[in-house]
Specification:
This protein is an alpha+beta fold. Helices cover about 30% and strands about 20% of the residues. The protein contains 20 helices and 28 strands. It is globular.
Length: about 775
């Protein structure tokens, strides 16, 4: 049993099934009598819809029905809700425009759904959609968030002043401004946190069925938790009793935040299946994922750091324009404000911070949470400022961080957002990362690279994030008659290995065989409650709920064991699957079997050997994964190509349940962070609003040969805020890597006078930066 417990590198249970083609993805599913849907999308970024003529499409071969926004409105469906409300600094409410399932009067981004065709096959539906005639009156579009707030910018929503849905700040700025006025030094940076497009392995799809006799619908879709989708669908959209809709998610090839949303297509297939009384399936392709899935990031930020004469930060102010896209998605405006704002300052003891964020509308796809959801953005700001401060003062970049870390003696530490950072060893983690990356030996490697005609740089990215997500979760652990164990939990695994890690918790707590544990998730009929997976919450919420359910089983087992052994209950102990007393011992399997026989139970104890635990950790209580990433790059100055040649990550994820799984999570997150820093470039045409980077031909994801062998290790500081001592692990790589990469590139170019380069650091951009810097140097040398 010991080799399957907490802390062991157990191979994932899921992998054999997934790697041998036995996964169950939504696209694999078909229902008898199903028809196929195709979505007609707007080719314009902004246009008025004067008329829609579906006559030809309705007469096309195989067509069952054609629906428009008017049909949706006739059934009084609700609009798609934004589930947060971010107050404005002037006290006015956030502007919340309606988002119709199908466009009614206007389209506001390329890809906005306009009509749906249902036919006998996907190809028939697609061909018929081309026959729909839409009279568009094209309107001016705006895609740049800085341009969107200008007085003469096109308005997406006439009643929304300046295209700003909310203008938020953490506090009034006067006190911070006063500190800046008396500061010894101030460093400032303007930076772009570039828009990225999530790319899960399976493009979005949905399949819905309807039972007219019971008036119940069923939806199969890839999600980040069935209940996350079920609640808004039943409460806000269809306004039906919860039992009238069952949501099932089987395998989901990655989520990254984008799979936790209610998309129009989910609503449409449910609605159409009810209306047509037959199953309806929609299969989006990769191009539709590019134009219609929620995107991530897309911030423009001006940040300033004030320091005293010793290089100690005394104040920080950050002003951001955050692009929401055309509509407010699920938690879109929360990401750059509360989600990111609460950890502004990250691991540094900065006594005064002012943060302001304007969330603005543009004619682009809506944005929402993407791996890290606000935390990578603030980490990037802080780590660029720390490097600039070190250069300004003339000290080592590691030293500036040492001087500003929250000391271990000050933990728990309440930051300026009243968030209590519970634990960490920031200085210790830095030192481990410097040692593993051979920071002190770098200058020799820089010289060796220069001899080969390359520029070499090294950079630090120290991150901190607040992990936890929704503050409640539920789990059930029960023994089946054959002695196996069933674990039912409301979190959701979309690639993280929960089936394995949660089984390890059960083995640790109950001492049962690892292979005898069955894992149930992602079905609202089988899982009565859950908040899914987002914000690195699964181990600390679902894991703790499972652990406490196991503890309840052990307590009941002691009573049964005492009865079986004719012993006093207080005399019964439990360890590694065996109940022991002075009179003898019984295994947990024997107790589980006895629990099903009323004749073998003590008086007052109900049959069965199971437990349910509903865990509430408390609102505002988080834990704080943190870590230090060190990136080393080489740049070819003739082409601008940046190669990541070394990457070191030392992460504090608290107690590590399965180091093999966490290593995988770190590798994946780092790959995404490197992708954002170097390759992933979402480009909209400024005039037309067309998505230029709408396929893998134009949008570059990092490949295996773009990445070095990544050195991942841990500095485990258990969190005191949960039973397992765990901290989130899923988003760490995406938080630390972008800053580490950019800091390394700037370090490689610093002798040219380069202070900052915006992501993504494509070869063209780096080449131009080098050429411009060389030209400026030539002008300076010759006095021109």
């Amino acid at each position: 049993m010991e080799r399957y417990g907490i802390g062991q590198p157990v191979r994932r249970k899921e992998d054999l099934r997934l790697l041998t083609g036995r996964g169950r993805f939504t696209d694999d599913l078909n229902l008898e009598g199903q028809v196929h849907a195709y979505i007609l999308r707007s080719p314009y970024a902004h246009a008025r819809i004067n008329a829609i003529d579906t006559t030809k499409a309705r007469a096309a071969p195989g067509v069952v029905a054609v629906f428009t926004g008017a049909d949706i409105e006739s059934d009084s469906l609700g609009t798609i809700p934004c589930q947060v409300d971010i107050p404005q600094k002037n006290g006015e409410p956030m502007f919340r425009p309606p988002r119709h399932v199908l466009a009614v009067d206007r389209v506001r981004f390329v890809g906005d759904p306009v009509a749906m065709v249902v036919a006998g096959s996907h190809n028939e539906a697609r061909d018929a959609a081309e026959l729909i005639e839409v009279d568009y009156e094209e309107l001016p579009a705006v895609v740049n968030p800085a341009r969107a707030v200008e007085p003469d910018a096109p308005r997406l929503w006439p009643e929304c002043h300046g295209n700003v849905c909310t203008d938020w700040e953490n506090q009034e700025s006067a006190a911070v401004d006063e500190i800046f006025a008396g500061a010894d030094r101030i460093v400032a940076v303007d930076l772009v946190n570039n828009r990225v497009i999530p790319n899960p392995m399976e493009p979005r799809c949905a399949l819905a069925g309807y039972d007219a006799e019971t008036d119940c619908s069923i939806l199969y879709a890839p999600t980040q938790g069935a209940h996350r989708i079920h609640r808004p669908l039943t409460q806000s959209i269809f306004k039906i009793a919860p039992e009238k809709l069952r949501v099932i998610s089987y395998d989901t090839g990655g989520g990254f935040g984008s799979r936790s949303k209610v998309y129009p297509e989910l609503i449409l297939v449910i609605w159409a299946s009810r209306r047509l009384a037959r199953p309806v399936k929609w299969q989006g392709d990769r191009s539709e994922t590019f134009v219609s899935e929620t995107h991530g990031r897309d911030n423009l930020t001006h940040a300033e750091l004030a320091l005293d004469g010793n290089g100690k930060a005394v104040a920080l102010r950050v002003a951001t324009i955050a692009n929401m896209g055309a509509y407010l998605s699920d938690i879109g405006p929360r990401v750059p404000t509360l989600a990111g704002g609460r950890v502004t300052g990250t691991v540094y003891a900065i006594p005064a911070i002012h943060v302001s964020v304007r969330c603005v509308f543009t004619n682009t796809a809506p944005t929402d949470a993407y791996r890290g959801a606000g935390r990578p953005e603030v980490v990037y700001v802080m780590e660029r400022l720390m490097d600039m401060a070190a250069a300004e003062i003339g000290i080592d970049r590691a030293e500036i961080r040492r001087r500003n870390f929250i000391p271990t003696s000050a933990l728990p530490y309440t930051n300026t957002m009243n968030l209590v950072i519970d634990s960490g060893d920031f200085a210790g983690t830095l030192e481990k990362a410097l040692a593993r990356s051979d920071w002190n030996g770098f200058e020799q490697r820089r010289a060796d690279a220069a001899a080969r005609g390359k520029r070499r740089g090294i950079g630090i990215g120290y991150y901190l994030e607040a992990a936890g997500g929704q503050p409640s979760e539920q789990a059930q652990v029960r023994f089946a008659p054959d002695g196996s164990v069933v674990v039912v939990v409301g979190t959701y695994s979309h690639g993280q290995g929960h089936e394995t890690a949660f089984s390890q918790i059960v083995v640790e707590r109950l001492g049962v065989p690892f292979d005898g544990i069955t894992f149930v998730q992602g079905d609202t009929a089988l899982v009565p409650f859950g908040h899914g997976t987002a914000g690195s919450r699964s181990s600390q919420m679902g894991g703790v709920a499972i652990a406490r359910a196991c503890d309840k089983i052990v307590e009941k087992g002691k009573l049964i064991a005492a009865h079986l052994l004719q012993a006093d209950g207080a005399d019964v102990g439990f360890e590694t699957g065996v109940f022991r007393a002075s009179r003898g011992a019984v295994t947990i399997a024997e107790v589980a079997k006895a629990a099903l026989d009323p004749d073998k139970l003590p008086d007052g104890l109900d049959p069965g050997f199971d437990a349910t635990y509903h865990y509430d950790r408390g609102t505002g209580t988080f834990n704080f994964p943190n870590g230090c990433h060190v990136c080393e790059v080489e740049i070819d100055p003739e082409t601008g190509v940046v190669e990541v040649v070394r990457f070191t990550a030392v992460d504090d994820c608290g107690t590590v349940i399965n180091p093999m799984i966490v290593h995988g999570q770190a590798h994946g997150g780092i790959a995404q962070g490197i992708g954002q820093a170097l390759y992933e470039h979402t480009v909209y045409d400024d005039e037309s609003g067309q998505l230029v980077s709408g396929s893998y031909l134009d949008y570059v994801l990092p490949r295996a040969d773009n990445l070095p062998s990544i050195d991942v290790s841990f500095n485990e500081v258990p969190s005191p805020t949960n039973d397992l001592g765990v901290k989130g692990a899923g988003e760490s790589g995406a938080c630390g890597a972008p800053a580490a990469v950019v800091n390394a590139v700037v370090d490689a170019l610093k002798d040219l006078g380069v202070r900052h380069v915006d992501m993504p650091l494509t070869p063209e951009q780096v080449w131009r930066v080098i050429r411009d810097a060389e030209a400026s140097g030539a002008v300076a040398r010759h006095g021109r």
